[in-house]
Amino acid sequence: MTAAAITGLGLVSPYGHGTEVFWQKLLTGDPVTEPSPTSPATAGEPVARVPPAGETGATPRKQTWAREALAEALRAAGRAELPPTALLVIAGSTPCLPHPTSPHAASPLPDEVSGPDLRDYFGGARVYVTHACASAAFAMALAQQCVTGGTADIVAVVGASVLNPYDYSSMDVVRAVSPTGARPFDTTRDGITVGEGAGAVILEPAGGRRRGPLLAGASCRVGGGSASASDDETIAACMRDALAQGRERSRVHPGRLGYVHAHATGTPQGDAAELLALEGVARELGIHDLPSGSHKGAIGHLLHSSAFPGLVAAVNALRDGIAPPTAGLETPEPTERVHLLRRPHRIARDSTALVNGFGFGGSNASLLIAPS
Amino acid sequence: MPGDPLTEPPSTELQLTEPPSAQPPSTQPPSTELQSTEPRSPLVASAPYTGESSARLLSLSRAVSLVLRDAFAALPDDLRRDAPLVLAARDYCAWAVARYIRCHDDPAYRLRPFDAVRLEPAELIRPYAAESGWRGSCYVADDDLPGTRGRALVTEHLLRAHGGLVTCELRALADLGLDDPGFRISAVALPIPATGAAISPTRAEEIP
């Protein structure tokens, strides 16, 4: 079975436009979240906005950013465009559908909540994946399956999220929004900060003309006893599955795990469940010091697209041998084997990394990244 | 090759216009559908939105569980627990988001946590996963537009990789308007057993 190589990455985030600007600023540990006196914040909570870069306003930002991220990922993969034989996997909440024709139909969905619309961008096979805030992680798991099966030469995964009152209220109504700013894994954490941005990943069979780190394992499950919070058993099972898949398919030993880019949004329950799972997996692997962190205190939670910054962070951590700090983390939760990072931390360059992504509906995913 | 699950989109097999029992067992796909008591649409499960209660979604979720139970039962024993599931829910997503927006913009409506959770089709699968012990990969994945081939391609990849899977569809029974169109829920286990596994349709009145 062929392994899947990550040959291109693209990112638009509140840190700016491009993967490198995100990575360099993430290493500083400085958050870019700011209190927002205007919508979508309902009570002046912080949000994280993408800095403008000449958008005209004629095209919805979601669409613009998705195309920008795809263009960056394709450049990195040495391609000018997606070949017609590619599969495009789009991560989001709902596709852009044609305007309803019924006189009783709802008005068209606002651009902010549907799409991104890539109908004009790519006329080949497209599939839409939706798993709440784990959408991008599930989309990457699906893409990996298609590449490792040997039947897809190239798969592109793309997604985008823009701040809007609808998505924001869906977090606010479950009391997930922090009034002061996300502090993942901090003992004083009290919720998420909503951010915006876009990401793209190009996956191709390993051993081809383009090298890149391997997406060596991917697990995605729906389960658990609650719709709104992930449970530690399902999270741990996903991480174990991804590690086992890496061992079976790419001969990547689970004990090489050197970094976990956690989902860790900053909610009390979600972070606690993930930390419990991380401790359990570290114990099983005999790892005494497992570095872990999250980008969500720095650039906020990109909701359906939240796995893209996580993947960029993990890939660059392995490339540079440095695990990034978690912005907003002042008083880390007590741990036994998990090292919650407040500062950049050196890791072995032959390490592997896990990227976690969770969402409503009991959606849990874990991705294993290994050096090529 | 007609009937070949590798070349024919699963959705083609699910466009049944009569109860599966009316078909010869040898050609009958191992699918199950919910049969309502309405004569106009004999193979449907409808879960109208009332705006007042979560009970309707619970019944839709229960209906999905029953359909999935029968479809997974049609898989060979060694595949059943770990086989992937592809849920095609484009219509449900569009309707759920439109409904959420309407509620959000209605000053007389007070949003509740349930309204946010309801946006996610995975929530329709979670009860089955919790009850059955099924632990396969799950993908809520659909063509972004009808006929863009993506889901058929993905189904083909997964079938090759795993040797078996279940695809489930939620398709609206009417135009996607503000009112609940009702959904037909159907699932098929692939590959279709050579013997043809006859599954009795689940009836809507069986849903708790």
TrEMBL record, chain A:
Q: Which GO terms describe its molecular function?
A: 3-oxoacyl-[acyl-carrier-protein] synthase activity
Return the annotated region ranges for Disordered: 29-63
Identify the keywords attached in UniProt to this record, alphabetized.
Transferase
Q: Which Gene3D superfamilies match?
A: 3.40.47.10
Give the family this protein belongs to, as stated in its UniProt record. Answer: Belongs to the thiolase-like superfamily. Beta-ketoacyl-ACP synthases family.
Organism in which the protein naturally occurs: Sphaerisporangium album
Instruction: State what protein this is by name.
Output: 3-oxoacyl-ACP synthase
GO terms (BP aspect) = fatty acid biosynthetic process
Query: Where does the Ketosynthase family 3 (KS3) domain start and stop, copy by copy?
Result: 1-371
